[in-house]
Known about the structure:
This protein is of the alpha+beta class. The protein has 9 helices and 24 strands. Strand 2 (109-116) and strand 3 form a beta hairpin.
Amino acid sequence: MRRILRIVSSRKLAIVLLVLTIILSLVGTTVLDEDQLGEYAKSWWFISVIIFLLTATVVCTVQRVIGVIDRKGLNEKPSNNFDSKIITNKDIFAGFSTLDIELRKYKYQTTFKKDNSNTFLIKGIKGQFGFWGSIIFHISFLVIGFGVIFSLAFKFSGDFMLVEGQTFNDYQAGYQNTETGIFYKSNHGQYQLNFKNFEPRVSNNKKIQSAEEYSEDYISTVAIIDNYQTVKEVQLGVNQKVKYKGFTINPDYYGHGYAPKLKITRIRGDSGENLAQETVVDSYLVLNTDLHRSYDEIAEVMSEVTYGDEVELPDLNWKLKVNFFPSKPKDGEKIVEASPFAKDSFLSIEITDLESQKVVYQGVVDLKKAVEIGSYKLEFTEVENWQRFLVRKDRGQGIVYLGFFIGIVGLILRFTQHQRMVLGLIQVEDGQTVIYLKEILENKSLQKPQLDEVLTSLGGD
């Protein structure tokens, strides 16, 4: 049992486990994608490393605290290994009192012990905050470790997409992607979020210099609804968030783009009867945003940013490929500039028959315009912005931040407050009072000895 305790309490083991945890975390965050990272963090072997690290830290911390308590005792006698010796004509009680007064004059906190009528032990300590700083720093690892385990066990994260004007209901099935802790219990249905408006923070006349600049600055206006009442309405910029009932909600930095609305109606049936008002499709098409220049062969234009997607429409037996262009190129040019504003928008559309794999339509459709494709009419009715929102509920995160704060406090105390200790033994030898003194410095490279000053005050050498 003692051997196991020695192994677990080894600082070398704690350092190895800490380095291993850092390496595993770096590998996970740099090599794996988001879905794989969630499974990686919940794997039994990763959690085992965290638990072993936490256990080793607990044992080291407990032993460190016990060491502090032991050092507060008076079990160490300096008579066999002293720095200085003073012979005084005072009796033993006067000699003890004089040493106690001198140590207190130099801001030492003193404790004493009387072995017998001929022996006194006295200890003076100052700079104890620095010594406790080491303990506080060790405790911070415990707090951080507990926060990490708590987070892995109970956290929730997810995301959803909304088009301007749409409302999201907080139910787990409504999220596109979710990641939950091992012991997370669903507690949804807490709120609704209405995506009111998306507005770029650039001038309408400003020329966007790069595709990345398109995504750099914007405001998403959202309203939090609870029990059919709007409880708060906020404007969220890049890296800004809103908190409600333990959930943290923020817009995804690059997760936004355009959502053109398509309406497809049947204009005649197979028998020739008029079915012009039968609406088959009337919905927004959320397009992927690709911040790279590309050439569209159908529209014969080059676009600074690509907005496009492919979607299958089984009821129509179609595969629809759409590219969106927020504005038309200038006269005589073939380049559609990157712009966060939709003006004179148009679509490049390619429709393929799912059975024959033949292209049944290729062409360009302007906003508010329609084209006929066989027995159907396709209309580009409007365009809105879409935004992806990230949701997180992680009480362990606050514990981890608290652990880091405690660690910083411990480090500040550890490196700004250095402990020093003076051990004194006062005893009678051959009828004379003899004082033995020993000075212990925590960091000899940063501390200057003060024992000489105490000796001078006592009249010794």
